[in-house]
Amino acid sequence: AGSQLREIFDKINNLLSGKSVLSGGRTVSVTQHPQGLDFVYYKLAEKFVNQGEEEVASHHDAAFPIAVVASGIWELHPRVGDLFLAHLHKKCPYSVPFYPALKEGTSVEEYQRMLGYQVKDSKVEEQDHFLKRMSGLIRLYAAIIQLRWPYGNKQGTHPHGLNYGWRWLAQMLNMEPLADVTATLLLDFLEVCGNALMKQYQVQFWKMMLLIREDYIPRIEAITTSGQMGSLMRFKQFLEKCLQQKEIPLPKGALQSSFWRS
């Protein structure tokens, strides 16, 4: 409910503002230790990113309540935003976007980690699980860039707004695609913030969609094996439907104004 989200937001904001906050049955304050505030900034940013790969990966709708709180905190406490991006880029290099290259002297295990895979006891996580986590992280990022905390000061601009989303999309299309990963993440991104980008960039946006259909999808197809077709087919169907209807639907789970009255 909107009222619960406000409570969570106020508690985090109070903690970062140096006020005493009740947590786990005791009162805590960042002023209790000289590095208290730095530590809380770091851990909070890490927690937001963890929620992307855990909560949002499992429940896509969760991106919006988490993102609106993260966006509002970022606006009031810019350091959290910087650290959020640092954690996000480390866990998901595709959010930069960046595809790390295998350098000489780097072990396969280390390289898998650089690509965002979890490696435990020399075992690399399954591809499905990896893609699910990356999707959660990209969806959270795509939700943050379009959402503002509704009770904040509306004078300033969004600290990391839609222009960053446009840049991400343009940079993705300037890179050689990766099988499975590229189609999956483009679909995630456009499902979540395609509607907002369409409203903001209008004609330019549709030019970009046509470019993806005419030029970029064939490039993805060229590197995709028959076993990896699922994500590409889903992306193609989504794109065709949007181009036919000249509309990108509002994302499922988007917070309507009625939400804030709950």
From TrEMBL:
GO terms for cellular component: cytoplasm; nuclear pore cytoplasmic filaments. It is found in: Cytoplasm; Nucleus, Nuclear pore complex. Keywords: Coiled coil, Cytoplasm, mRNA transport, Nuclear pore complex, Nucleus, Protein transport, Translocation, Transport. GO terms for molecular function: inositol hexakisphosphate binding; phospholipid binding; translation initiation factor binding. GO terms for biological process: poly(A)+ mRNA export from nucleus; protein transport. InterPro entries: GLE1 (IPR012476), GLE1-like_sf (IPR038506). The keyword Nucleotide-binding does not apply. Belongs to the GLE1 family. Required for the export of mRNAs containing poly(A) tails from the nucleus into the cytoplasm. May be involved in the terminal step of the mRNA transport through the nuclear pore complex (NPC). This is mRNA export factor GLE1. It comes from Stercorarius parasiticus. The lineage of its organism: Eukaryota, Metazoa, Chordata, Craniata, Vertebrata. The gene is Gle1.
